[in-house]
Amino acid sequence: MSADSHRISRLEPYLERPEPAPTLLKMLVGVQLAGFREDSGLAQDQAARALGFSAAKLSRIESGKGRRPPAEADVQALLRLYGTEDYEASVLLKLLQRAGEPGWWQRYDKRLMPEWFDRLVGLQEAAAAIRTFEIQYVPGLLQTPAYTEAVVRRGLPSAPASEVRRRVELRTRRARLLHRTDAPQLWAVVDESVLLRVLGSREVMREQLGHLVMMAERSHVTVQIVPLDVTNASAPAIPVTYLRFGGLDLPDVVYLEHIKSANFLEDRDETEEYRVALDRLADEALTPRESLDLLHRTMEQRYPRP
Question: Does residue 171 sit within a domain?
Answer without folding.
Answer: no
